[in-house]
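Re: Re: token formats

Sure, here are both.
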Amino acid sequence: MELPIGRTETIDVAGRPRNVWRAGDSGPLVLLVHGIPTNHTLWWDVVPRLHEHARLVAVDMLGYGGSPAPAGTGVDIASQASALLDLLDTLGEERAVVVGHDLGGGVTQILATTAPQRVAGAVVVDGVCYDGWPVPGIKALKLAWPVLERLPAGALEKVLRTALRPLFSHQDRAGQAVDRFVAPWLEPGGGSRLARHLRAADSVYTQAVAPFLPRLDLPLEVVWGMRDSQMKPRYGERLARDVPGANLTRVDDANHFVPVDRPDVVADAVLRVLERSGVTSRSE
């Protein structure tokens, strides 16, 4: 799959391969973290808007896309947050701006509250938080995990496409995005991998860090699609209220997948955090 800019590469992180999309040669580091059931291509139209301002690393979380998660490896959002700290160490970076969508938004909150010295600023885009998830669509799939892990690729593809298409406001942009999101799950064992992630979806992690959100001292931009029927806008409003100095951007013409519906709005939010954070490029 040819990227619009930059390159993908596999990095050895704590003895495990991690697939990342890298773009941008200078400036501060920005980690872009997707949710379920997507991958680094969620940021397809965001990265080209930012590569002149930062060094961008869009990760495939453990067990997603091109990043394997061998048996015994945790794939819950707390484990994913820990794996991102390992990635920062591997890259030789002390701090980064972290941008998270969906489950990635929960990962971002965990990093900001448990390792604030590593997070220069954050953007949460329709992110899981508090007790507001698993969202209805994921709950339905989670209940069906014993069936999903046995589905042939064609049937699994139909399930995923049916579930994902309604989560975009701009249907003209949805088709190619859904193609990119679905493709990795159609590889051998895709149903079992997806079922594993569904079983790990648990709001206990975001509920555990919620009391610490008001103590955060970092630039935070909260971006939310007002048409999001899954992760309701009230959760974004609550998150913006709870974190001192947070800015909330309501996106009237976006559903859950704001990075696809309105990549310009997401990119603008990242630029605001970069400006507010004062983080600079790593010294060579």
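Second one below.
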Amino acid sequence: MKAYPIKTRYIKKGENFIPIIVEAIKNSGIKLEDGDFVVLSEKMVSTAEGNFIDESKYKPKMLAYLTYYWSKYIWGYVLGKIFRLKEEKIKNLRNMPKRESLKHKQMIIEELGLLYSLKPYAEGGIDLTNVPYTYACPLPKEPEKWASLLRKRIKEELGVDVNVMVSDTDATYRLFNFYFTALPYAIKGIHILPGIVGFLLARIIELLKLGGFAGCTPLAVVGNHNLKIEELVRIAFIADRVHITTKNMGEVLKKHNSYIITEEILEKLEHTPVVVIKMKEEFKGEKNGM
């Protein structure tokens, strides 16, 4: 298989992305075939749903302080080394800004629960990158609905029967033939071990070499495929690897002389929230875990 990122403009909050994506695929020069995969980023779907949370409205309480110090000091200075987190992750944990992090942890506790807040980062798939203002972007509410709508529209306009996946960059792990994620939900066949439970188990089995990173996490898949979980998480992983994302938002803010991300800034960035996976073409890539 081979992956092709599809460039679109920035999809705004509450905007219907279906016609935008179909038009972008038409203009890409890529010829879809029956059985190909069209993979959507979860953040674009959530944005289209208007599924944002304003973290500025949350008032930190005792548990927020507990989970903030737990992430910053216990994971940043002790567990991060033991469980071999990447140095960049450890550095980010040690440099967590207190005021913003406390509000974030309080939001996680109220929206998802303590088990998710105890996870040192990427709690419950809630995204803070490339999101405007003081918003956080949780997982989509109805990923299967949007995947079905896009598949139907592609069949009507392009005459091909594709599979449509909504995926999240967060990991799915494998322990022998048991697949699991620390996210709040995933497709059937991937078990949910919420927050810190799944995260710790993943680290332990990686240290013991009993399994580990299997791929990224499909949240919904619609279509006539007969692929196994190991193949679906690999497709999600390949799609995640070829997405073009802006990683250093600090430089972007400096360029625009702003201290906060706005929709106007996001509109000027390059966005590839859609990836076409051609199932009959060979993909030559390098595996990379967390």
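The radius of gyration is 19 Å. The CA atoms of residues 202 and 284 lie 26 Å apart.
- S.
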